[in-house]
Specification:
This protein is 21% helix and 31% strand. By secondary structure, it is an alpha+beta fold.
């Protein structure tokens, strides 16, 4: 029997890059309850989603000075995502991903953002279904 190698279905992140003076800020596996979907049963009952977000953040020429105010804070990123998710029903996973990406690109230090949203019980016999988007700052 031939040996098979299990492939990872996630694209590796290549955001952190010393040559471009960027750092990688991320949140992994944020689990939330969300009113999302196009079907009546989805409009009536919230469902569990998983969100992953990766931010490519331009490093300032000024030292961090171990100061919380000098970084993109992942706690603020999480709180913003929660506020977006709790702001009302969204029909499409794609729309939710766009809202999250747009919000994070408001910060001028964020060069690009990747958002992955997974619905965890939408399709029987799957671990999850969803969408992943990547958006870059327009200059």
């Amino acid at each position: 029997m031939p040996h098979t190698v299990k492939k990872n279905n996630l694209t590796p992140m290549k955001y952190a890059d010393a040559s471009r003076s960027v750092r990688h800020v991320f949140v992994r596996d944020l689990l939330l309850s969300c009113s999302i979907g196009i079907y009546d049963h989805e409009k009536e009952n919230p469902q569990n989603i998983r969100i992953n977000i990766d931010l490519c953040v331009k490093e300032d020429s000024v030292s961090l000075n171990d100061d919380y105010g000098n970084v993109v804070c992942y706690e603020k990123v999480v709180n913003a995502i929660k506020n977006i998710v709790n702001s009302g029903h969204v029909r499409l996973v794609e729309t939710l991903a766009e809202k999250i990406a747009d919000f994070n690109l408001i910060d001028p230090r964020v060069v690009s953002v990747r958002v992955r949203i997974e619905k965890l019980q939408a399709i029987e016999n799957t671990t999850s279904v969803g969408v992943e988007i990547e958006r870059h700052r327009r200059n």
